[in-house]
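Support request, please re-run this one:
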Amino acid sequence: MEENKTSLMKQAMTFGAIIGLALVVYSILLYIAGLTFSKRLGFIQYIVLFIGIYWGSRNYRDKALDGFIKYGRALSLGVWISIFVGIITLFFNFIMLRYIDPGLIDKYMAIAEESMEGSRFLSADQIEDGLEKSRKLMTSVWSVPIGLISFVAIGFVMSLITSAFVKRNPNPVA
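Re-run finished. Output below.
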């Protein structure tokens, strides 16, 4: 049993690193091309994460578990993969916003302000206060754990879906 946990963690770290590094490279390419704020191209990151969780879970099922995996174990693996992907990508984003190009924060804030200005539920003071708090949070050390919680929530939902496709129970009749 302990060997299975170790094997699961190694799989999660391996695929988390592969997917995380792929997403970092993708982010760098978007940055170089000046497309950091493209919503359509940003959506591709979620597709990569989904495919990576599926690929990692299926690979683990086929190579480490002789072709069988229970739904719960596949779900657990998907969440762990998401954690490792999140650590890598959030660390990169923190370094990017804090040291490489702090000017990106102003661009983020301008986009956020533009989207909030049309709201009839927020006053100008509330918008300004919210933007100032967001600005401080983006470069604080707390952005990493808060971002990780969000990342894991997204990974959990994706893992719920991928686990349904990956799970394969051994035939109890045979």
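The chain has a mean pLDDT of 88. Helices lie at 2-32, 39-64, 71-100, 103-117, 124-139, 143-166.
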